[in-house]
């Protein structure tokens, strides 16, 4: 009986450590994507910035009280709103929370700041990342 209890406790500890390791690894991978998005934005590379998003018509973007769907629609919206560097400016993310939803999905809450010639802008966001074909992609974005 004592051997069974020790085996169960050991299994629980191993699973717990594996879960924590996955959380750290997943969070680091997601942060790498967000850091790359900042870099791409700051280089005025909106297509590069959009690489963090799921290239699908099922991508959802909610901003300005309007829900848009689709990767191309989202890219075109960014290009219209930020036609050049004076509008795009320099992006800084402040990540407040990265939390698992389930094994293959996380939500990220944060703040953004744009320092730009046409006037600074800032706001909040909540994005959902999902592992698709082995890569983390943003499948939904709500920014205000």
Task: Map the helices and strands.
Blueprint: H1 2-42, H2 46-50, E1 60-63, E2 66-69, H3 71-81, H4 85-88, E3 90-102, E4 105-115, E5 121-132, E6 135-143
Parallel strand pairs: 1-6
Antiparallel strand pairs: 1-2, 3-4, 4-5, 5-6
What is the helix tally?
4
Largest sheet: 6 strands, mixed
**Fraction of residues in β-strands:** 35-45%
* Fraction in helix: 40-55%
How many strand elements? 6
Features:
144 residues; alpha+beta; six-stranded mixed beta sheet; 4 helices
Q: Care to describe what's here?
A:
The chain has 144 residues and is of the alpha+beta class. Helix content is 42%, strand content 37%. It contains 4 helices and 6 strands. It has helices at residues 2-42, 46-50, 71-81, 85-88, and strands at 60-63, 66-69, 90-102, 105-115, 121-132, 135-143. Strands 2-1-6-5-4-3 form a 6-stranded mixed beta sheet, with helices on one face. A hairpin with a 2-residue loop joins strand 5 and strand 6. It is globular. Residues 5-18 have low confidence and may be disordered.
Brief summary of the model shown:
The chain is α+β, with helices and mostly antiparallel strands. The chain contains four helices and six strands; from the N terminus they run ααββααββββ.
């Amino acid at each position: 009986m004592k051997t069974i209890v020790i085996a169960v406790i050991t299994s629980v500890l191993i699973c717990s450590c594996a879960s924590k390791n996955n959380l750290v690894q997943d969070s680091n991978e997601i942060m790498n994507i967000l850091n790359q998005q900042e870099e791409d934005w700051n280089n005025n590379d909106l297509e590069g910035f959009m690489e963090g998003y799921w290239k699908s018509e099922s991508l959802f973007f909610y901003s300005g009280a309007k829900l848009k769907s689709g990767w191309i629609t989202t890219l075109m919206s960014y290009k219209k709103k930020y036609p050049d560097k004076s509008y795009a400016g320099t992006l800084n993310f402040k990540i407040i929370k990265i939390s698992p939803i389930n094994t293959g999905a996380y939500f990220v809450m944060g703040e953004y700041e744009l320092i730009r010639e046409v006037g600074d802008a800032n706001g909040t966001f909540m994005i959902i990342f999902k592992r698709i074909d082995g890569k983390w992609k943003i499948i939904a974005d709500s920014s205000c």
